[in-house]
Automatic annotation (TrEMBL):
It comes from the Bacteria. InterPro entries: Amidohydro-rel, Metal_Hydrolase, Metallo-dep_Lactonases. The keyword RNA-binding does not apply. It holds the Pfam family Amidohydro_2. This is Amidohydrolase family protein. The keyword Hydrolase applies. It comes from Rhizobium straminoryzae.
Length: 274
């Protein structure tokens, strides 16, 4: 199986603006040796390593880790999408065999409509021209802006991270449900079944996630869903194996073994070209 979404970080690097001591157990270094045993126990053989800091130094760090880590199949990095030389920067990273995608951290930006800035749209068009995957990290409030951007760049190959982090803790489905349904009408957009446990109550149960997984299953189907752990962020609420079992159990209500193989391996491998 291929985990489409996990992170590594070294706190001393100092560019993780969101990672503070208040986050307790994840305010420490997480590196390949910390994940290897959990992967084996869960049956995961490869991962996609995703950026967690808004610097190109982070992208360089992750690519260095990937070069030394057999199970890291690819890296989704960060590049300044407002840089006037964005195309040149992207071209430089594209030369690295394990650079497979780009992600701005939309969820944490002051401007909810950042993705619609003219310079960012121009960069999105460059990403689309290269056929490079684009990870969409958002909350529900960002989705109308994402939809508008997709209308401007309909050829963009994109994936919604963490089912766009709906308010699972309070069982709120709308307007997330309608926005997800509209995003799914773009045939080049997929969705990661990931990042859910940290949006739920501390005493979460399977039933808390069912309406959300049911909806993305209906909207995206077996061809455009992919499993991701969001490790180590997920460890704030669940063990790695629990996250994998949660996704497998809920998706098994909709899909058989062949479709589950697509969701847990083939789709992410095809999307990221690994």
């Amino acid at each position: 199986m291929l985990d489409s979404h996990q992170h590594f970080w070294k706190v001393e690097r100092g560019d993780y603006g969101w990672l503070t001591p208040e986050l307790g157990p994840i305010y420490r270094d997480f590196l390949p040796s910390d994940l290897a045993q959990d992967m084996r126990r869960a049956g995961i053989t490869r991962t996609i390593l995703v950026q967690a800091a808004e610097t190109e130094a982070e992208t360089d760090f992750l690519l260095e880790v990937a070069e030394k880590t057999d199970f890291v199949a690819g890296v989704v990095g960060w590049i300044d999408m407002e840089a006037t030389d964005f195309a040149a920067r992207l071209g430089r990273y594209r030369q690295h065999p394990k650079f497979v995608g780009i992600r701005p951290m939309l969820q944490g930006l002051d401007d909810d409509a950042y993705i619609l800035r003219p310079s960012v749209l121009d960069s999105l068009k460059t990403v689309a021209e290269h056929g490079l995957p684009f990870d969409i990290l958002t909350f529900t409030r960002h989705l109308p802006h994402v939809i508008a951007a997709l209308k401007e760049v309909p050829t963009l190959r994109a994936v919604v991270d963490h089912i766009s982090k709906p308010d699972i803790a309070n069982s709120i489905l709308d307007p997330w449900r309608a926005h997800i349904e509209e995003i799914a009408t773009f045939p080049n957009v997929s969705c990661k079944v990931s990042g859910m446990v940290t949006e739920a109550r501390a005493d979460w149960g399977l039933a808390d996630f069912a309406p959300y997984v049911d909806h993305v299953a209906r909207c995206f189907g077996a061809d455009r869903l992919m499993f991701g752990s969001d490790w180590p962020v997920c460890t704030l609420a669940a063990h790695y194996s629990e996250v994998a079992n949660l996704a497998r159990t809920l998706l098994s209500r909709h899909f058989g073994p062949q479709a589950l193989r697509q969701i847990f391996e083939d789709n992410a491998a095809r999307f990221y070209g690994v």
